[in-house]
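The pair is quoted verbatim below.
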Amino acid sequence: MPPEPAQRSRRSPIETRTPSPVLDVTIPAFNDEASLEENLRRLHGYLKESFPHTFRITVADNASTDNTLRIAERLARELPEVFVVRFEQRGRGNALRQVWLASPSPVLAYMEADLSTDLSAVAPLLAPLISGHSDLAIGTRLVPASRVTRSPRHQFVARSYNSLLRTVLGAEFSDAQCGFKAIRADVAHQLLPHVKDEAWFFDTELLIIAERSGLRIHEVPVDWTQDPNSSVDVVRTAIADLRGIGRLTRDLRRGRIPVRELRAALSAGPAPSPRGSILGRVVPVVAWSLAYLGIFLACNGYLNVVVANVLGLALASWAVRPHLGLPGFVTGLAVSSGALLLLPLITTPDRWLEGGAIVGAALTAAVVGIIARRT
């Protein structure tokens, strides 16, 4: 999708002053007048002092209604490495897609305007892309080496979301939504035409398509501090992400995304994956089944049997990556719930009969998941 004429005219003078910088950092901004100038100066100073290659910073204004655009344009006149693109249509994904597709830089990155991620992670993020050892690099807040300051509610939502990605889509990366990512431009130009989302799910869709295409994703533990003035609506974003997961699952199943063609174009051969071997498939499923059974039996004496079943399934899927996909996960839930509800109509159920129903449901889910993934 080409930039609008007004956006193109803003870009030209900067390209003349700084032709083809190695790095182009995009800062999506929406009503960030309170902190934009301070954070842009901090990022510019850090890159000027620490980054050994040419760079530029692109402020992508997402239809701000305050002074964000005027502040960014004033800084662009002062600092030759900073320039501004204005979008009338809001959406982080829309802004990143258009800026990245128009950029001449070989390495593309983005950071949130509040700079929640400590800038000490910039070098580890970019080094594997510049050296050619990785295709994408992402910051992660969900590994032990990360230092994160955020509310328990946000932490719970983030972990739940990424656990769902691992269960439904078989994701191997740990943090889909950290606003601190970089990608090689040649890879971005191949992937972006297949990324449909224009808002917050953009990151997840890009990463899933990249992973399915056999690309190398490098993860960097980050120090991250939540912005207390963030305007992100967590509930609304979560609902949109769930819809995105459903839509992306359908797109992958129906072949809208040409994964095999992308893999052939972007990688020398099939990417190694623990799912590629029998052992890599069996071990996660067995571990998940045992965790599922153990949690169910532990909760069954204190909770309703259906509640214990749902809790066991959810917690086990959170803790273990069974790679069942959405069909396997739904099958496991349906078979186990149906069996537990039918047992009292057939006989007097006890813990072991109910445990047997859970094991049978787990095995059925595993078979359905493997068949679905092969298909």
Q: What stands out?
A: The chain has two domains: 5-266, 274-374. The two ends are 32 Å apart (CA to CA).
